[in-house]
Design brief:
The chain has 315 residues and is of the alpha/beta class. The protein contains eleven helices and ten strands. The longest helix is centred in the C-terminal third of the chain and has 17 residues.
C-alpha cells in the first residue's frame, strides 16, 4: 500500500522520526547530540497518531512498546503504590524497552505531574527513546495556574531532551472519517469498535458506577460516571468488564461543573482507546454539547472523536 501524501508539518515530523533509526530500522540510542525522542503536538485529527504508528512499525527493535497514556498511567500508578519505587514500577509495566511511544500524553493533575517527572527521569537515565503525541505544546501542560509553576522544571526537561514539533496543519483528517457505524438518532450517539483483550487493572469498580444490565451490555448515568471522583483506572476496569456501554442523561456541559466535564473527556478517551462500543444518550446533539462550556482540557479531542460518527435515522 503506498504511503499517504504528507502535508509539510507531517513531513517535517516524519523526517525527524526517521532520523532516530539507522538504515536497518534500529533505534539510535539517545545521547550526545541525539535527542531523547520527539514530542508531536497539535489539534485533534492532524495526523500525530498516524505518524507515531508509521514510525513504530518501521522500528525493527523487539524491545518496544506503544501505549495509550490513560491505560499506561493507571498501571504505573498502581505499580508505584505497590513497590514504592518508580524504577521497579517501570520494570513491571513496560520491562526492558529501548523505545516507548505514548499516545495522547497529557498532564492535568498535580499528583500526575509529580509522577510524570519521576517517570521521565527514569526513562532518560536509561536512554529509552521516547515518542509522544499530545494536543498541547509542553508549555501548556498542567495548565492550572496554581500548580503550573511547580511543573515548569519538568516542562524544561521535556523541551531540552525531546525534539518538539507542531503537527497542526489546516486539515482535520479525522473529520469525515467512517470509524463509527452509527450516529445521533433520537437523542443518542453510537460509537462502535472492536474491544481487544484488556487485563483488569486490579481495581474494583467504584460503587457509584452501578452499571445496570441491558439487552446487549450495561447502562450508566452521566452523574454516576462523571459526578463522583472517577479516574481513568475506574473506566479501564469498567470497559474491561463490559465491552458495550450506554451512557445516559448527558446534558449540555455548560450546566455541569468543569470537573464533571473533564471526567467525561477521560471516559471517552478510555473507551475510544479500547475500541469499546459506546452509546451516549444526550439531550442535545454533539455539536451543541460544548456551547458556552468554558475551557476544558481535552474537550476538542473529545468533540473530534464524537465528530467521527455518522448520522442515522431516528427510530
Amino acid at each position: 500500500m503506498p504511503e499517504p501524501t504528507l502535508d509539510p508539518a507531517q513531513r517535517a515530523a516524519a523526517d525527524a522520526l526517521d532520523a532516530l533509526l539507522d538504515r536497518r530500522g534500529r533505534v539510535r540510542k539517545p545521547g550526545g547530540p541525539r535527542p531523547a525522542g520527539v514530542y508531536l503536538h497539535g489539534r485533534p485529527g492532524r495526523g500525530k497518531t498516524m505518524l507515531m504508528d508509521r514510525f513504530f512499525a518501521a522500528t525493527s527493535s523487539k524491545h518496544k512498546a506503544r501505549l495509550h497514556f490513560h491505560r499506561f498511567f493507571a498501571e504505573l500508578s498502581a505499580a508505584v503504590r505497590i513497590t514504592g519505587s518508580m524504577r521497579t514500577a517501570v520494570d513491571m509495566v513496560v520491562g526492558d524497552v529501548d523505545l516507548l511511544c505514548f499516545d495522547e500524553f497529557h498532564v492535568h493533575d498535580v499528583g500526575d505531574g509529580m509522577l510524570i517527572a519521576r517517570l521521565l527521569d527514569v526513562l532518560f537515565t536509561r536512554r529509552v527513546l521516547v515518542i509522544v503525541t499530545a494536543n498541547q505544546p509542553p508549555a501548556e501542560l498542567l495548565p492550572d495556574p496554581i500548580f503550573h509553576e511547580g511543573f515548569e522544571p519538568t516542562i524544561a526537561l521535556i523541551t531540552e531532551r525531546l525534539t518538539v514539533l507542531a503537527v497542526d496543519g489546516p486539515r482535520d483528517y479525522r473529520s469525515g472519517g467512517h470509524r463509527a457505524t452509527g450516529g445521533f438518532a433520537g437523542g443518542s450517539y453510537l460509537v462502535t469498535g472492536v474491544l481487544p483483550e484488556l487485563p483488569s487493572p486490579g481495581r474494583p469498580l467504584r460503587r457509584a458506577l452501578r452499571p445496570v444490565p441491558t439487552d446487549d451490555g450495561v447502562a450508566l448515568t452521566f452523574t454516576a460516571v462523571c459526578g463522583d471522583a472517577g479516574a481513568a483506572a475506574d473506566y479501564l476496569a469498567l470497559v474491561a468488564a463490559h465491552p458495550r456501554i450506554t451512557l445516559t442523561g448527558l446534558p449540555p456541559l455548560r450546566l455541569v461543573p468543569p470537573t464533571w466535564a473533564a471526567r467525561l473527556v477521560t471516559f471517552v478517551d478510555v473507551l475510544h482507546d479500547a475500541g469499546a462500543h459506546l452509546t451516549v444518550e444526550a439531550t442535545v446533539p454533539p455539536a451543541e454539547l460544548a456551547a458556552d462550556a468554558g475551557p476544558i482540557p481535552g474537550l476538542a479531542r473529545m468533540l473530534s472523536r464524537l465528530g467521527e460518527l455518522t448520522p442515522v435515522p431516528a427510530s
